[in-house]
Amino acid sequence: MVAKLINGTAIAQEVLDEVAARLKETRAKIPGFSVTLAVVQVGNRSDSTVYISKKLEKAKQVGVQSELSKLGTDCDEFELESVIERLNNDPHIDGIIVQLPLDTVNKIDVEKILDKIRPEKDVDGLTRMNVGKLARGELDSAIVPCTPFGCLRLVQKATGDDNFVQGKRVVVLGRSKIVGAPAAALFTWF
């Protein structure tokens, strides 16, 4: 087997262009249609700030509006839950990301916080509902975490075959809740 160099940057841009085109097409069919992403940041971690700025930049690039709710390092669980509840109930907010890790001096139950997000607005696919659907192979209704899904799309785009991984053995290194475990679950169903 000959090694093939994959240009991830070019493939990522191709995917962004496809998303932008689909949104433009939807707006042409449904005047006034818009999509808004809400990102919640707790604290001031510089790495989180960089990740968030990239997410907001890409959202803007494809035509998705965004809103950043920035909470201080003194944020407690009640305050964070209140922000999530407001975003859940806002009909103009289509998706919610709580940027992890949380940078706070207070103890916050992250699993409890993530489960406060309505599953249909859970962009990162980290609520128990979406994790469970992924584990059961309910891929039509699950929101899959972006890194595992991105890995799958990268392979599909690089090979030109949406079924390339079907029946293959896939090795996943790591078992984190955000990447490793969801990647293993996702590839189980192909």
UniProtKB/TrEMBL annotation:
Residues 6-124 form the Tetrahydrofolate dehydrogenase/cyclohydrolase catalytic domain. GO terms for molecular function: methenyltetrahydrofolate cyclohydrolase activity; methylenetetrahydrofolate dehydrogenase (NADP+) activity. It comes from the Eukaryota. Pathway: One-carbon metabolism; tetrahydrofolate interconversion. Gene3D superfamilies: Leucine Dehydrogenase, chain A, domain 1, NAD(P)-binding Rossmann-like Domain. It catalyses: (6R)-5,10-methenyltetrahydrofolate + H2O = (6R)-10-formyltetrahydrofolate + H(+). Residues 145-188 form the Tetrahydrofolate dehydrogenase/cyclohydrolase NAD(P)-binding domain. One of its GO terms (cellular component) is cytosol. Keywords: Hydrolase, Multifunctional enzyme, NADP, One-carbon metabolism, Oxidoreductase. SUPFAM superfamilies: Aminoacid dehydrogenase-like, N-terminal domain (SSF53223), NAD(P)-binding Rossmann-fold domains (SSF51735). Pfam families: THF_DHG_CYH, THF_DHG_CYH_C. One of its GO terms (biological process) is tetrahydrofolate interconversion. InterPro entries: Aminoacid_DH-like_N_sf, NAD(P)-bd_dom_sf, THF_DH/CycHdrlase, THF_DH/CycHdrlase_cat_dom, THF_DH/CycHdrlase_NAD-bd_dom. Homodimer. This is Methenyltetrahydrofolate cyclohydrolase. It comes from Meloidogyne javanica. The lineage of its organism: Eukaryota, Metazoa, Ecdysozoa, Nematoda, Chromadorea.
